[in-house]
Structures are given as C-alpha cells and as structure tokens.
What we know:
Layout (H helix, E strand, L loop, with lengths): L1 H6 L6 H18 L1 H6 L1 H25 L5 H30 L18 H6 L5 H6 L6 H7 L2 H17 L5 H22 L2 H16 L8 H25 L4 H7 L1 H10 L6 H10 L4 H14 L2 H17 L6 H14 L9 H13 L14 H26 L5 H8 L1 H10 L1
Helix pairs in contact: 2-11, 2-14, 4-9, 4-10, 4-11, 4-16, 5-12, 5-16, 5-17, 5-18, 5-20, 11-14, 12-17, 12-20, 14-20, 15-16, 15-20, 16-20, 17-19, 17-20, 18-19
Amino acid sequence: MTAARRSRRFYRTLYGQVLIATAIGVVVGAVWPASGVAMKPLGDAFIKLVRMIVAPVIFCTVVAGNVKTVGKAGVAALVYFEIVTTIALVIGLLVVNVVRPGAGMNIDAARIDAAAVAQYATAGKAQSATDFLLNLIPSTVVDAFARGDIIQVLVVAVLFGIALRSVGAAGRPVVDLIDRLSAVLFAIVGLIMTTAPIGAFGAMAFTIASFGVGALAPLVKVIACFYAACLLFVGLVAGAIARAHGFSIWRFVAFIRDEIFIVYGTSSSESALPLLMEKLEDLGVGRSVVGLVVPAGYSFNLDGTAIYLSIATVFIAQATNTPLSLGQQVALLAILLITSKGAAGVAGAALIVLAATLSATGQIPVAGVALILGIHRFMGEAMAVTNLIGNGLAAIVVGRWCGELDEARLRAQLGENAKEAKLAEA
C-alpha cells in the first residue's frame, strides 16, 4: 500500500492536492479579496463534516478496542502529556526571551481597543478545578455526542466499553456490531477527506483576504519566533523522544504528510483527527491506545498551543513594557500549565485561552490580545501541525509503554528496516 502511494503522481496524492489548493487559495485571497472572503463557507463546511464524524469514530474505536489497557494507557498518557507540554512551554519561554520580538514596540495598553477582544476575555474567564472535572461528565449521553465534546464522548466510551466487557458473552454481539460500524465510519472518513482540498482552498482564501499579507509585516518577528520554536520542539524534543523509542520523527512526519497538509490548510488540528487515528493503527499502535490517547491529547497534549501561549503572553508583556522578572515567569509557567489544558484543537480557541492566561496573571493587560488578532490565523497553522505531530507521537510512545505496539510493523511502515539494511551494507 505504501509503495503504491509513493508511486502516484504528486497531483494525485491527497497532500499534493491540498498543497495546490492552498496555494490557489493564497492567490485568490490576495488578488481577489472579495471572492476570497466569499470562500469561507467551503472551509467551514469541511471542518463541520469532520466534526460530524469525530464523536462516533472515537466511541467505536474505544469500545471495540481492548478496554483492559485503558487504565494503564490513561495513566501513562497523562504523565507523558504533562512532561512534554511542560517542555513545550519552556521552549516557548526561552525562544521569546532570547529573540524578544515585542521589545521596542512601546504600546500603550490604555490605548488598545479593548472591545476588539471582549468576546475572548468573556469566554476566557478562569474556571475552578471542580468546574473542570464536572465538565468532563456530560449532562446526558446524547448531549456529549450532540455537542461533539471529545473528552465527554471519551468518558462515555470508556464507561460503555467497561460495562460491555463486564456482561461477558452477552455483550459479544454488540462488540462485533460496533467493530463493523467502525469500518463503515472510517469509509465515511475517506469520503470526507476527498473534499479536503476544497476545504483548504476556502480556509486559506478567506484568511488571506480577511487579514491580508500586509498584516504580517509589522509582526513578522513574532511569527518567525513562533515558527522557529515549533521547529525546535519537533526537531529536538519530539526527535529525541522518537529516537529513544526506535524510530525517526522525520519518517513519521513523512508518513502523516496528508494529514499535515490538511491541518495546515485549515488551521485546525481537529480536521485530520479521524485520519490520524487510522494511520496510527496502520503503524501498529493498538486500537484501544489510539482511541484513548489521541482524543485525550486534543485537550491535554496540545504542544503547539503551549508554545503559542508562552510566546504570545511574553510578547504582549514586552510590547506593552510590562516587566516580568524570572520569578514572575516561573509563576507564569505554572499558570500556563493549567490554562493550556483543555484548549480545543480548533483555530480561535487559543485566543480564548490566551485571554484567560493574561487575566490570571493579573499584571499583563488582557487587551493586549488585540496585538495578535491579525496574525493569529497565520500562527494557527504551525500550532495545529505541531499539535498533530505531538499527539501522533504520544500515541506511539504510550502504545510501546503499554505493550500495545507492533514494533516490526512500525519499522516496516516507516521504512526503518530499509534504513538499517543500508547501514549494515555500508
């Protein structure tokens, strides 16, 4: 299957079509702004199609998997998430302090239009730990699916799977039915993904037309700072983790290139979630691990979002001449460890979390969010891709820790065996 995929011409591959569509979207948005803005429904429709199928895919994947491994995988995933997102936050803080993209801007916080960020500040009001835990439980089973809340669907799926196994042979027909339903759902995912180039075109045309390339010029330094931090994280941190677990991060990135281009074009890591889950199973990761780790990662393991929050927060402080001592940045790190959890993998949600973070500091002006409104979508693309790579890596690592990874299959799919053979011949 892999050889056949490689032999296809570039324009026939999904990632090739998405890349071409994204490039066309840039041209349309820049040359014909009115037409670019009108393309917004195309991007919105694609993301809605994906969201429509995400909840049932997660439910069936978890229930049809090995529920016995859920407890162990859950604990391992939470430990992994906390460690890696902390490293991501530290990288963001280090890069923004070295580059200092906001230094010299001398923005008067009192003159910033607070009305422009009022909706984010209102939505970003901090919630208590009790509220967070209670929100994990849906009002009803149907409500979790109706609202498409990934974590709530995951909670329902785990409980349903445990109960289904507890009834023994009586539950076997239901497991078989769900397994078959899962195959149908992934076939629907395949159909939806054929529209990915149209979605990427619409989303990119709208972004360029609405914000314009000109919006990048004054703030190009902070954009470059963010992209550099994401590359550092993927190349050094994710690369080291992958190498320690027996594979190359760059081979993995190449393996999920279709999903990466879809996510980049739509600025939403959620847009490739079902396809990523299918690819991870192809790599040999156990279904139960994939079904648990990937959905949970979209709330607790958003590495790109963590980097974005740390850089954006300190950038706003620098731009408004708000002093931050080392001790205050350590306190900021602690705040970010809390606020960075629970951010949805959808473009725009990070702005709400950013507003909540600034509000929690009590020092950096919340109105400073307005400084990056114009470039948020351009940063959202790298953010979403980093989130995608981080969650895929997490599933492989947790799968190996829990004995739910076919390592021979992983090496074969990523071409690691061919690499080792060449080294042996040399």
